[in-house]
Each structure stands twice: as C-alpha cells, then as structure tokens.
Design goal:
Elements: E1 4-6, E2 9-11, H1 13-26, H2 28-38, E3 44-47, H3 53-62, E4 70-73, E5 77-82, H4 90-98, H5 102-111, E6 118-119, E7 127-131, E8 136-141, E9 152-160, E10 173-175, E11 185-187, E12 193-198, E13 205-207, E14 216-225, E15 239-240, H6 247-266
Antiparallel strand pairs: 1-2, 3-12, 4-5, 5-7, 5-8, 6-14, 7-14, 8-13, 8-15, 9-12, 9-14, 10-11, 10-13
Helix pairs in contact: 1-4, 1-5
Length: 281
C-alpha cells in the first residue's frame, strides 16, 4: 500500500479518498446550486483546493513528460494522453482511482441530481492528459457510451495539477452552452481544481490553445449510468467540429463524424477497440 509522508501526516490510498470526500461534502449545497444553475444547458460545477497543497504539488512533480505519453495530433486535437497507469508513479494511479471511491461517486451523483452512477475502472478515454505549447482540443461531443456500448457516459471529472497555471496561459476548458457556433464559457484550469461537467448530446466542450512554453496537466475520470441524462439523447461517436471561424475544418469534421457513425451502424462496437484503456496485468 502506498504511503507518503507529507510533513506531519501519512496518506495512503483510502486517506486520499477521505480527504476528497470531506472537502466536497463540506461544499455540497453550494456545488449543487452551482450545478443546477447550468443544468438546462451543460451542467457543471468546480471546486478548488481539492487535495492538500503539498500532495497536489507532488502529483505535478511526478506527472509524466510529454515524451512518456501518447501523442494525438490532428485537426481535431493536439495533446498527450496515457491510461496505462502502471507506467507512471503510483501516486497518480491512487489519486485517479480516489475519484472512483463509492462514497465520492454517490456524493457527486447527489450534487448533480443523478442516481446510479458507475465509475470506469478501465479508464476508457480517461486517465492522464497533458497539453504543451500549441496544444488544443477542438469543440466536440464525447462518445455517448462506454467501450462496450452498455452504459451512457454522463459525467466528466477533470482534476488539474499544474502549479501557478494562469488564465493567459490558455489550456482551459471551454463549455459551449449555446452550441459551437456561439461564444463559449471558459473555466480556468487552476491548480488543485476539480471540474465536473455533464455529458450528453448537447454538451459541446473544448480546450483552448496553450500559449506558453509549459505543460498543463490533468487527471480525468468518467462516470457512466444505465440511463441517459436526457430523454432525447441517442448513441453517437465522438464528434468534433471547428471553431466558429473555421469553415473548412467544420466541413471536414462533419464528414469524418458522418463516416464514423455509418461504420458504427454496421459494426456496433466499431472495427477495433479503442486502445485508450488501462490494460492491467
């Protein structure tokens, strides 16, 4: 069992979960109010100082370098990812799975008015992500389901660990409550901040371009459910589009999404499994 001595106290895997739970529970009412205010478009809430500062700093210190992660680079996105947690420091795996603790999952479900949430042990499309200078993520809708197409993807949890990350640095989450043809809401990727956002057929989101010679690091999880968030939700693959001024990019990405949807109508689980999962030994 991992134990880390931070000044005068010991933290193991369960202790990390307990700290997260207590901090979120202490702010439960405020977070619920925050989520409800945005629930009709893209529900979200954020909370700062999720972990003791020294522990969050340690997460940043041991975060893998870009060359130790898989690079995704296209007109859709430009970022570094990894779900193979045993290739990295044990602390990062413990913090990642701390957000899958049953008490925390239930608590976040109560805040977001969602029952019967299920965390994803395989980290399908979750885990670690890093954005260096010039990296970005275009407006998109997440795949509506899990890897086996059995449950609906309903919540996205993003925990940021880069110290002193400023608004002018870029690399921030953008929500598009009125669709990707309109203006987004920017949520700053502040150090030691957790952002929880709803995922459904209208939850367009993106990450704006990193503008500094530094890396923005994030630990992410998805929660799933047997029920979609909205009655109108239908199965869809991950769908990207350009920003409002990127007409050609929009056309190309619309064609890409249409083609991949056609493939999924023929092959329900796709022609190959998404490799972005934690393959445990």
């Amino acid at each position: 069992m991992l134990k880390i001595n931070f000044r005068n106290f010991l933290l193991d895997k369960q202790a990390i979960s307990d700290i997260i739970y207590k901090h979120i529970f202490a702010n439960k009412q405020t977070l619920n109010e925050q989520f409800c205010l945005s629930e009709n478009t893209i529900g979200y809430f954020y909370i700062d100082n999720v972990l003791p500062e020294q522990l969050a700093l340690e997460c940043a210190k041991v975060f893998p370098k870009p060359e130790e992660m898989k690079l995704l680079k296209s007109i859709k996105e430009y970022k570094h990812i990894s779900a193979q947690m045993d290739k990295h420091h044990q602390l990062l795996e413990d913090v990642t799975y701390a957000f899958q603790n049953k008490k925390i999952v239930k608590l976040i479900g109560e805040i977001c008015n969602i029952s019967s949430l299920v965390p994803d042990d395989s980290l399908y499309a979750g885990g670690l992500s890093l954005m260096a200078k010039g990296n970005f993520l275009n407006p998109h809708l997440d795949n509506s389901h899990d890897a086996e197409r059995k449950r609906w993807r309903v919540l996205n949890l993003l925990y940021y660990v880069t110290p002193n990350w400023k608004q002018q640095n870029g690399g921030h989450l953008e929500l598009w409550p009125n669709g990707p043809k309109n203006e987004p809401i920017e949520l700053v990727s502040r150090f030691n901040r957790l952002i929880v956002m709803a995922t459904h057929s209208s939850s367009w989101h993106s990450v704006n371009k990193v503008t500094v010679d530094d890396c923005r690091c994030c630990i992410s999880n998805y929660y799933f459910s047997d029920n979609a968030l909205r009655e109108t939700d239908k199965f869809h693959v991950t769908k990207f589009r350009g920003r409002p001024n990127q007409t050609v990019t929009n056309l190309l990405l619309d064609c890409d999404a249409s083609l991949r949807m056609l493939v999924r109508k023929i092959f329900k689980k796709g022609v190959r499994k998404n490799p972005h999962i934690y393959k445990k030994k």
